[in-house]
Amino acid sequence: MKKDGFIIKKHSCLLLVLLFVFAFTGCSNDAADSTSEKSEKAGQTESSTIGTDTQGETEAGQTEQNDSGKTAVVYFSATGTTEEVANQIAEETGADIFEIVPEEPYTSEDLNYSDDNCRANKEMNDEAARPAISSDLSVVSEYDVIYLGYPVWWGTAPRIIQTFLENSDISQAAVYTFCTSGGSGIEQSVEDLQGLYPDVNIVSGRRFGQGADADVKEWIEEHISSKQ
């Protein structure tokens, strides 16, 4: 009996040892699973936070870019007077500058207003006249502010300005006008253009004569101050 009792006790001890080993192994696995799950959740949280921060930086960058805007000076000059003013406006504002270049340049005979048959007079008498432009101005659609300049012909803007407006997608821009003239104001030309192109935000601007450097600088300073 002692021998059998010893065997029974021995088996009982072995059984207890096995149960203890199984229990310890189970606890270890649960702890490992718990740690793994916590690490996985932490990784997901960190990834989510990084993604949010990146998106925030991107949106901030887009807002800053939209707020900064882009400015262009677009002009037509038959004799060079308007070109001088356009260059000064570009210098004062830091704008990019683009010239409206006619496919057929205007000669002095074309601008002889005392001749009813000169090219300029014929174009201004023909409401359907649209002189062709040779320069590619499609890039101006990317600008938020445009200074549009021209000489005054017959009290209004030359027909080639209508060619430009009808072939340019600038409905998103604020278009500030300026003109050169010996005496006629800019008001009539702006009113005409606003009536013809209501989808374009055409703003009344300023008339300049020759040697108007100081006037141009003053106008730009006033304009910039009013926008701040």
In terms of DSSP E residues, the strand content is: 5-15%
Helical percentage: 40-55%
Order of helices and strands: HEHEHEHEHEH
Pairing-aware structural class of the strands and helices? alpha/beta
Distance between the termini: 108 Å
How many separate domains?
2
CATH secondary-structure class of the largest domain: Alpha Beta
Q: Which descriptor suits the 3D outline?
A: globular
Number of helices: 6
Number of strands: 5
**Rg (C-alpha, Å):** 39 Å
The average pLDDT is 78
- Name given to the CATH architecture of the largest domain: 3-Layer(aba) Sandwich
Task: Specify the CATH homologous superfamily of the largest domain.
Answer: Flavodoxin domain
Q: Biggest sheet, open or closed, and with what strands and sense?
A: 5 strands, parallel
What is the CATH topology assignment of the largest domain? Rossmann fold
What does this structure look like?
With 228 residues, this protein is of the alpha/beta class. It has 6 helices and 5 strands, in the order H-E-H-E-H-E-H-E-H-E-H. The protein folds into 2 domains: 1-68; 69-227, Flavodoxin domain (Rossmann fold), CATH 3.40.50. It has helices at 2-68, 81-93, 119-125, 159-166, 187-196, 213-227, and strands at 71-75, 96-99, 145-151, 174-180, 201-208. The chain has a 5-stranded parallel sheet, sandwiched between helices. The N and C termini lie far apart (108 Å).
